[in-house]
Design goal:
The chain is of the alpha/beta class. The chain folds into 2 domains: about 90 residues, Leucine Dehydrogenase, chain A, domain 1 (Rossmann fold, 3-Layer(aba) Sandwich); about 120 residues, 3-Layer(aba) Sandwich (Rossmann fold). The chain contains 10 helices and 10 strands. A 5-stranded parallel beta sheet has the order 5-4-6-7-10. Strand 4, helix 7 and strand 5 form a beta-alpha-beta unit. Helix 1 runs parallel beside helix 10 and helix 6 packs across helix 10. The protein is globular, with a radius of gyration of 19 Å.
Length: about 280
């Protein structure tokens, strides 16, 4: 069965739009893009469009790729100190002369819609309420909305990035799964992935997971998005794996739309946190 992320994301966007419409104040997200990375431009465009649909104002900062780190930090500081800006998103990757950790940790944790500030990441590790990175949040939401049990299941997450693999593993743990994190250095990866009741893949390698690596009736979540001969494909060989999986996310129209919808939710959460603190 296909897990339709696009349809679910549309429902979330409608709900967020209704909540935003009920708030007198204009909710604003600062989007910061450094350079002209083609993939980043596509993502930023999708985020802008989604914000528009949800009634969220976008404060654009499209910056030259030779901007200094000091200049970038000054822009973030101004956004931090502007009470009319409720969320800040710095699109990754950044040019090599800019330290991403310094930049991400300069964002006010209460405006950190990507949940990548060390404060929010630490809270996630501790199991505290916090702003969760949008992609892992979207994965868990999609599974739960389709009534897929997570508790007690063997979950394998292939990929250990700060943005997806690590936080997703923590969210599965919080939902009482038994979690294994696999990656490019995992020995006998096939043996590990075949044990998974739920297999989540985020390695950035097209068609990396094949049918012989997947247990029959497993739930397969493909988080990868790669361009091959002008077509978008995931990290899972869909044509093969869809034959044996009980549920599978397509690429596109799977986790991508859920990521954007979860970002909208995070903007709203950031607004609500700041509202509570100012009251």
């Amino acid at each position: 069965m296909i897990l339709d992320g696009k349809k679910m994301a549309e429902l979330i966007t409608i709900r967020v739009a209704k909540e935003v419409a009920d708030i007198e104040e204009k909710i604003t997200l600062s989007l910061i893009l450094v350079g002209q990375d083609p993939a980043s431009l596509i993502y930023i465009n999708k985020k802008q469009k989604a914000c528009e649909e949800a009634g969220i104002i976008v404060d654009e900062h499209f910056l030259d790729d030779n901007i200094t780190q000091k200049e970038l930090l000054k822009i973030i500081s101004e956004c931090n100190n502007n009470s009319k800006i409720h969320g800040i998103l710095v699109q990754m990757p950044l040019p090599s002369h800019i330290d991403a950790d310094i930049v991400l940790n300069s964002i006010n944790p209460n405006k950190d819609v990507d949940g990548l500030n060390i404060i929010n990441q630490g809270k996630l590790l501790a199991g505290m309420e916090t702003i969760v990175p949008a992609t892992p949040k979207g994965v868990i939401t999609l599974l739960k909305k389709n009534y897929i049990d997570i508790a007690g299941k063997n979950v394998v997450v292939v990929g250990r990035s700060r943005l997806v693999g690590k936080p997703l593993s923590l969210l599965f743990l919080q939902n009482n799964a038994t979690v294994t994190i696999a990656h490019s250095k995992t020995v006998n990866l096939k043996e590990v992935t075949k044990r998974a009741d739920i297999l989540a893949v985020a390695v950035g390698i097209p068609n990396f997971i094949t049918a012989d690596m997947v247990k029959k009736d497993a739930v397969v979540v493909d988080i990868g998005i790669n361009k091959v001969e002008g077509k978008l494909v995931g990290d899972v060989k869909y044509s093969e794996v869809s034959e044996i999986a009980s549920y599978i996310t397509p690429v596109p129209k799977g986790i991508g739309p859920m990521t954007i919808a979860s970002l909208l939710e995070n903007v709203l959460i950031c607004y609500q946190i700041q509202k509570r603190l100012s009251d």
